[in-house]
Amino acid sequence: MSRKKLSKIRRADPFFERESQRYEFPLPSREYVSQVLTDEGRPLAFADLVKLLDIADGEREMFQRRLGAMEREGQLLRNRKGDYILPERASLTAGRIQGHPDGYGFLVPDDGSADIFLDQRQMGKVLHGDRALVRVTGTDRKGRPEGSIVEVTERVNTRLVGRVFIEHGVVIVAPENKRISQDILVPPEKKSKLKVQSGQVVMVEIIEQPSKFSQPIGRVVEVLGNYADPGMEIEIALRKHDLPFEFSKAALEENKKMPDKVRKADHKGREDLRSLPLVTIDGETARDFDDAVYCEKQGRGWRLVVAIADVSHYVRPGMALDKEALERGNSVYFPRRVIPMLPEKLSNGICSLNPDVERLAMVCDMSISAAGKIGKYRFYPAVFRSHARLTYNKVWSWLSGEKQPDNEVDRKVLPQVRDLYKLYAALHKARGQRGAIDFETTETQMLFNDQGKIENIVPVVRNDAHRIIEECMLAANVCASDFLAEHKQTCLYRIHEGPSEEKLRNLRTFLGEFGLALSGGDDPRAKDYAALLEKIKPRPDFQLLQTVMLRSLRQAMYSPDNVGHFGLAYEHYTHFTSPIRRYPDLLVHRAIKAVLAGEKYEPNKPWDDIGLQCSATERRADEATRDVENWLKTFFMKERIGEVFDGTISAVTAFGIFVALDSVYIEGLVHVSELGQDYFQFDNIKHQMLGERSGERFRLGDRVRVKLVRADLESNKIDFVLVRDEPRAVGRKKPAAKRRP
């Protein structure tokens, strides 16, 4: 049925325009289907819906698929007669299952209402991540809604990574994802070529999902090796978090056809910047160079040129490489291994701004005043070559006067490096006046031996060379978002909302304990946070106060809805400077090119969906790298059981305190049962544990001495006990005086 011939019934769909933009032949939207069911107020058969929504014979199959998708996501339910009903009319709640390592779990409802507790018996029917419909049956002992699973609408676990255990000839696989507390039973297969041994790490394919009466059953499809093999922690993390780590055959074919060098034909329509002495400044071990910079004095201010690798010239919409890049969302940086968003021929080859070779770039050319304010700017495609590959340490050694350039190439670029430093000072001052928040955190780096295990963990020293590049990238990103907003081109903004009402209230209560206040009323700005941070810097409890302030803020994410960036104090902000390793940056490049060509850019999927996808892949990468780092740290500490360390309380929970060690930058738990012979009450607003009888207090930021008693590789947990050689001066309260009878 053509769009022109659609009836009034179909055009009455409140989301008709949206569906028309997405599909050539739009079907009734999910919202319209739900509305019709609501208006009818009764269960409807498929034939009823076809009639009510004026579905043509040729559309029936596609419409059936749409209803099936709505069923899987819990938006529709079928009764025993096969008629469609709305779950809420049957007092059912749709959502996603979230498992807990102790066997119980929750349904996290799609509508944002309170999580529904599911006991171990209910969790026996599902696995973490599955979608289900749940009926609330009452409340648990903590006052939370408790429910029972009525129907599992979607099974998301088809393959799992885990460890093999063989007991009395029975093979089971214990999943590495501790949120899946059920073991997978592996029945014997006569013709199986894979012979597994107890303790090995394997991939298991689930051939029978769990039910009310049986545990999940699977077959081993891949043996990864032994648990302590070098690099095994990364192999596990890749599979546990479903990180794509192998490129498809189609993507590799496209990659193979990519040129090794810039062709003459690629110069067309580009400005020639080959004589401009642009340079890259990166870490010593960097291999993919996204950005090159150039700075020169311009009147009382400066001209800043930021050239970013033109990945969009090579990775086009519709290509298999583009599909893979979206699925990955970003490159993932593990210790000693990178899972790139794009194959190495692109990321380390033709798209990497290596020195002394021609490269294609998208350029942001800015005029910046002496006060650090960005004036005019323009974007254009260019061809250029990097005149030097510099490192942060080398640049800082020149700027600090520690060393002088020792070759002709470095001597030639030194004047513009000095201009960059002067520009940085102006940009940094403008940042302070703008009120951007500048938290002081310590990043760490793992040093490895030849066997691939940690030898030491050391702090990464950031110098002003790092900050020069950071400010240049911020300037280019702001110009990109301003350019796209001005031309009304939709894009993915990097958004960061202010604190929620609850977190703001808790923060103010906590600060009040110290006689401090956050200005800004009910709607504080970044400058209010920045002013308070500056005020508390000289205090001995600065780290404690800064940590609590940092935790009051939300996480940044990608969205087409621009709400500004709270932390950086920008009205609009996007990511433009790393298209080799971040998919949103690649989309921003395409959007800028479309504007320059007088066109509008629309990706293959809705902007909202891509924003959620890229935000999710970013979180996934963070979780995977955290898993690997935790395993490596646990392995490192295994040999140090019994040693005593000084540290700082880095987190307080209902089950104990986490302590970050001074010397090795590792965190572990002191369980509440190890705090002393007392009942300790957890206060999440004051971030403390307080003993009822003794009045002893353990608060975030307090100094403690601990002894390492456990480093468990299976659970990645490090446990300490307190060492009480000396009385703790910090945080001790006098016990309350007894009343006279």
TrEMBL record:
<dbReference type="GO" id="GO:0008859">
    <property type="term" value="F:exoribonuclease II activity"/>
</dbReference>
<dbReference type="InterPro" id="IPR004476">
    <property type="entry name" value="RNase_II/RNase_R"/>
</dbReference>
<protein>
    <recommendedName>
        <fullName>Ribonuclease R</fullName>
        <ecNumber>3.1.13.1</ecNumber>
    </recommendedName>
</protein>
<dbReference type="Pfam" id="PF00575">
    <property type="entry name" value="S1"/>
</dbReference>
<dbReference type="InterPro" id="IPR012340">
    <property type="entry name" value="NA-bd_OB-fold"/>
</dbReference>
<dbReference type="InterPro" id="IPR050180">
    <property type="entry name" value="RNR_Ribonuclease"/>
</dbReference>
<dbReference type="Pfam" id="PF00773">
    <property type="entry name" value="RNB"/>
</dbReference>
<keyword id="KW-0540">Nuclease</keyword>
<dbReference type="InterPro" id="IPR013223">
    <property type="entry name" value="RNase_B_OB_dom"/>
</dbReference>
<dbReference type="GO" id="GO:0003723">
    <property type="term" value="F:RNA binding"/>
</dbReference>
<comment type="function">
    <text>3'-5' exoribonuclease that releases 5'-nucleoside monophosphates and is involved in maturation of structured RNAs.</text>
</comment>
<dbReference type="GO" id="GO:0005829">
    <property type="term" value="C:cytosol"/>
</dbReference>
<dbReference type="InterPro" id="IPR011129">
    <property type="entry name" value="CSD"/>
</dbReference>
<keyword id="KW-0378">Hydrolase</keyword>
<dbReference type="InterPro" id="IPR011805">
    <property type="entry name" value="RNase_R"/>
</dbReference>
<dbReference type="InterPro" id="IPR040476">
    <property type="entry name" value="CSD2"/>
</dbReference>
<keyword id="KW-0269">Exonuclease</keyword>
<dbReference type="GO" id="GO:0006402">
    <property type="term" value="P:mRNA catabolic process"/>
</dbReference>
<dbReference type="Pfam" id="PF17876">
    <property type="entry name" value="CSD2"/>
</dbReference>
<dbReference type="Pfam" id="PF08206">
    <property type="entry name" value="OB_RNB"/>
</dbReference>
<keyword id="KW-0963">Cytoplasm</keyword>
<keyword id="KW-0694">RNA-binding</keyword>
<dbReference type="InterPro" id="IPR001900">
    <property type="entry name" value="RNase_II/R"/>
</dbReference>
<comment type="similarity">
    <text>Belongs to the RNR ribonuclease family. RNase R subfamily.</text>
</comment>
<feature type="domain" description="S1 motif">
    <location>
        <begin position="642"/>
        <end position="723"/>
    </location>
</feature>
<dbReference type="InterPro" id="IPR003029">
    <property type="entry name" value="S1_domain"/>
</dbReference>
<dbReference type="InterPro" id="IPR022966">
    <property type="entry name" value="RNase_II/R_CS"/>
</dbReference>
